[in-house]
Amino acid sequence: MSLSGPILSVEYDENDYLLLAQLSKELGIKNKILFFQDGIELIEYLGATTDQPFLILCNTALPMISGIGVRDYIESSPPLKERAIPFIFFDTSGRVEVVKEAYKSCIQGYFLKPEIYEVLKDRLATIYKYWKSCLHPNNM
């Protein structure tokens, strides 16, 4: 995790991309946000770049490969795992079975995307502030 690295958002819904970009701007988040429509795009990006991302925000239900499948792939790839990028599910699904399945993988959080704009903004601020203040081997 690099404090100034990009935030990687894996989300198939373009409206959610636009909303995250707007909220980030309002919150004064300076990190660049890179959007990926599916897990394959993210995996290919991570394999091709030496950038150290700040964190990954991922939906669980994605085309091609699920968010859980993406996380499992990262964990099974020594070069990607060693980068220790915080992986957070940021999703509209709060189904118990989905959350339990997600936590079988090595994730750093599972947050619901609330439908109320101000609550969503506060949730994103909480995630961002936590990771900005967290000690991490890649930012020491």
From TrEMBL:
One of its GO terms (biological process) is phosphorelay signal transduction system. It comes from the Bacteria. This is Response regulator. Residues 6-128 form the Response regulatory domain. It comes from Dyadobacter sediminis. InterPro entries: CheY-like_superfamily, Sig_transdc_resp-reg_receiver.
